[in-house]
Each structure stands twice: as structure tokens, then as C-alpha cells.
Design a protein that fits this description.
alpha/beta; Rossmann fold; Luciferase, domain 3; 4 domains; eight-stranded mixed sheet; six-stranded antiparallel sheet; 28 strands; globular; membrane; nucleotide-binding; AMP-bd_C; lipid metabolism; AMP-dep_synth/lig_dom
Amino acid sequence: MMTGSDDTPLVEEGGLKATQHRLTIWHKVSISIDDPTNLKPPVKSNFRRYLQWMTAPVMTAISGLILYYQGPWYGLASLYATLIFTLLVRPGWRWFYIAAVTTPRDTVALFAYIRVLLFVKRQERKNLNIGDIFEANVARQPDKLAIVSESQQWTFRQLNEHSNRVANVFHSHGYKKGDVVGLLLENRAEFVATWLGLSKIGVITPLINTNLRGASLQHSITVGQCTALIYGASFRSAVMDIAKDLPAHVGLYQFNDESNQEVVASEGLSQGLAQQLNGLLETAAKDKVAAGASRADHHDKLVYIYTSGTTGLPKAAVITHSRYFFIAAGIHYTLGFKDQDVFYTPLPLYHTAGGVMSMGQALLFGSTVVIRKKFSASGYFSDCARFQCTVGQYIGEMARYILATPSAPHDRSHQVRMVFGNGLRPQIWPQFVERFGIRKVGEFYGATEGNANIMNNDSTVGAIGFISRILPQIYPISIIKADPHTGEPLRNSKGLCERCGVDEPGVFVGKIVRGNPCREFLGYVDQKASSKKVVHDVFSKGDMAFISGDLLVADERGYLYFRDRTGDTFRWKGENVSTSEVEAQLSNLAGYKDVIVYGVSIPNTEGRAGMAAIYDPTREVKVTELGEALAKSLPNYARPQFLRFLRRIDLTGTFKLRKVELQQQGFNPAIVEDELFYAQPDGVYAPLTPAVYERIVRNELRF
């Protein structure tokens, strides 16, 4: 999704200092475009600033005298002239130009925002949940296709019937409102029907990443406080590997692709064999949920969606019914989706992008959504043509993979009028829309757990959203000055944060307003983890904001562009990877040796690939065995693409491992004297020779 950072200063320090004094008056005294209410008292030593500050009250006083002595018409004319003069002086004529060029964009966004708020408020007033709105769509169009895949075509009626069966099975097993049942299942119609059915009886469903194995999978089940787990037959071995370490009260339900598949349980499970869910569903009522079942309210928890683990193991972000409404409706109205649109998403349904933004269009607005179990670059637009899709979804890596495929007849023989997603790199944006004939791109940015979500609604190349320059208070998000390495906000003498100027990188934050569905911060199941994402005393004492941990910049028109992530993480394959988690796992597998993990850039590749430096001067670690162990313990996006075996190690004065120099050296064998290995497509590590390095640089080898 993200582009790499560029640490080159925008203006050389000497040039900036040379002009700083001359620019101080205009840039620092004028009302901030980011915050027109941010007026500051005058500095008496600066005559122009003092004159600018006093313009409005003096001219108003003069107008009042004219009004008193010369009559109303003279007074009104004078007041009008005062207003024009004041606006020209403060904030200045440039503000009028910015307002003129951004008003169409802001107006479209404002009307969409109002429609979103009205939509959410209407559901809140009636205390409706996701199931209520979905069942209304079922009643209106029962035989319309809701979810389509290569092997399935489910109507709204079928989706509703399966969800009712799920609700009745778990209600009969004693599950009730507030209980938690995890779901580990691949992209298929039953995935949606399962969590939807559980929500009808008030049960919360953690949507578990299907790439997780071992400790990460166990952690996701336990941190979500699951009392049961539903898993697909294809994940049976992964579940059984950790079953003995799960709490004894966790019930297991296996969903089989075929009803006659064997159900096995891990040795030592105190609760006995896992239950075969298919048989239970076949005998359950499908027309409606049992009368005695509990019901979820509008603000109740709906699902948990796990982060990629930016600061450790995956964290369970809370998604309530109201939050689901806001996310799905927000992108629907902002990007101008239509109820009759057919959406294509090859993204995993356990993430917000596919599971809420796309699938929400079916559940809330009655659209058809086409899903795919596994993304295929060559099959993307052929699928869109085959299923007559009108809107496609992507992440940045997907767009690059699709663009890299050979030209094909279906490149333009499709009905896709818009694509939306996050991370379409500006370097390939124009080529992508030109080759595939895409009229509109809806780029968005946001965190599952956050409230600082933005969208690019006018296809501005490279922009991930915008801040209104004329009405910034409508949607209170900001970029504040922060340490680029730690992400810690920088504070002024009053202990408050400061907004960044134009083209000045800073951390993106969103003001928290309790009770407002679009400004509320629900955080994680782990409240301690939630507190780390909240910054206090931002622009005034006592206020709070969600801090994203991402460095963004805003141009003069308010368009926002991603720069980098702060902290000790990197992004690969659309996922945020915690170096500390990978280091811990890798150190254990390598016999508790010192391990340093960091992200390195690969030419013409999105994000940063993981690289691990292992201190092994006597070369005890067997690379083949290590690769096999990593495949079992880490998701594919977190596995290091490069290995370096250090013969010596450099420590700081406080005995911390140095990482910066290793990251700068990268994986170039001409620079690195240590042994280097790279991950082949089959996951096996092979020696990284100069010839291999040149192939990687020429983009002949891909990861």
C-alpha cells in the first residue's frame, strides 16, 4: 500500500534560514489554512504583524462611526468594504484561489458526509443492527445474487437461510449475546453467513487471519477471548497443532467442504472431539431465528478484525454494528457507489477492506459482490468481464501485479467503471488507468481501529485523501509535528501539539469525540493496547486524538500523501510487519541467537521486504531447516525474504543491537561480506550471489 520515504530535505537549511525572517509575517501571522480559528496575539516588535492583527477591529470601528453619522447605506457599504479588505489581508488573496479550486471537491465530500451521518443516525434512532438491514434487503430482492465466486452463486435468500441456521445451532448450544466465537475460514459465502448468523444472536465473531500459524494463531484466539472456534477443514492441521495449548473451555466446530469429511481432534483435548458443523446446520431451522434468542443492539460489538501486528502480535480491533454501518456507508456515498453495482474483491474477507467495505455493499445496499479465494493477477479483469463487475477493489501490490501481466483481450472488454482501494502507487497510477480504461480511482486511507479515515474522491494521482482548506472543522483530522523515528508528537512551550505546514511531514491524527460514530475511537479488545493509540492535550488541554503512526504530508490544496511509517515496522504485501515479533520467533528457531530484523527496499517493488541478520559466527544454523520452521511459525508476509549470517555484531553503549547500518547495506553482495540468502518462490532459501542480485535489481526475480 505504502510508498517508501524520501528523506531529502525540501529546502536546504541555509536557504530556508536566509528567507525565514522575510516570510515570518505572512506565513505565521495569517490565519492558518489548516485552522482558520487559530488566531494568536500580536508580537509588538513586529509592526506589520501588529497592523495585520488590528486591521479588522479598527476598520469595524470606523464602519460603526460612519453608520452612526452618515446613515445605514454608507455604513453597510463600509462594512462590506471592511470585510473584503480584511479577507484580502487575513488570510490573503491566495486563500481565495485555494477556495475556488477546492470548493467542488469539498462540496461533493460535504454532501456525501451529510448523507452518511443521516444514514447512520437513522439506524441508530431505530436501534437497527446489520442483520436487520440485511433482512430488509432479503425481503426486497430474495432471488438476487448476493455473493458469487468461481464455485458458488448465493442469492440473498440462501445467504439469509444459512445465517439463520448458524444462529439457531449456536443458540441451541447455549451461546448468547456477548459470547465470542472465532472464525477461521477461507473466502467463501459461508464465511459471511457464519458471522452474520452469529451476530443475529448477539455473538461477537473474531475474524482470524488465515495465514497465521503456531503462536500467532493461538494468540489471536486467546486475545479475542474466544469461547469457541469455527474453522474450515483445510485449517484442521493448523488448529490441531495448537489445540492442546488452548483454554479447556474453547469449543471446536469444524466446517467441511464435503459433509462426509473426517473430523479429528488433537490428542489431549479435554473437551473431546471437535463437532462437525455441517451436520448440525442441516437439521437447524432456516426460515427465522428462534424466538428466545438474544438480539444485538445498534452499538453492540459485531466482529473483531485483527491488525497485522505493528507493535507486536496481532491485536483485535473492535468493530461495532454502528462502526460497520459508518465504514460501508462512508465509502458508498463518498465514492458514489450504486446499489446495482457488481463489486469484485479478491481481498481476504477477514480484513476491513474486503469484509466491510466491499461485503458491506451487499449486506447494507443490496449489491452483488464477487469474491475469490486467492488473488490472481492474470485473472483479475477476466473475472470482472466474466461476472460483469462494475467496481473493482485492489491494494497497491495487486495493481502492480495486474499491470505486469501480458496484454490480453479482457484488458478493456469489461464494464469496470471504477476501482477503489489503498496503495495504488503514483508511479503506476496513470499507466494502470490508461491500460485498463478505468474512469475513476477511489483511493482511501485508514486504520481498522482508527477514526482518521480519508478518501480521494476525485482521482488525484497519488493522493490518499484530503483535508478541506476552507472547512477543516467539519472533519477534524490533522497532521502534527512528530519525531519521524519514534512517532512521538513534538510539543510547544505550552505542552500542546503543533500542526505541520504545507509539504511538512508529520503524524496523522484524528480528533476523538465520544458518542459520534465517525469520531469515536473503539480501539482494541486489549484496553492497554488501545491507550497507546491515543494522544492527549493535542491542541487544547483535555482533548484527545487517535494517532495513526504514519507520516503524511499535505500540499497547498489539502491533498494528503503517504510518506512512511514511524516506529520499528515495515510494510510488505499489504501487511504491517512487526520486527520485534519476527525477531522473537526467529531467535527461538535459530537456537536463541541474536537476530536483527528490518525492512529493505527492492527496486520497483512496493513496500519493504523483510531481512533478518542472524549472529552465527560458527555457522550452526541449517538454512533449509530454518526455512521450513519459518513457514510453519510465521505468516508468509512476515517471513524474511533475505537472510544474512553475521560473523560479528555491533552493540550500542546500552547493549542494543545496531540496525540502521545493516539496513543501509541492504542485500547487495558487493557491499555485504557475510553470507546472504534469498527466498525463492517455493519458500526455500538459496545463496544470494552477485548474478542473482543483478536479476533482482532488473526485476527478473520477484518476491
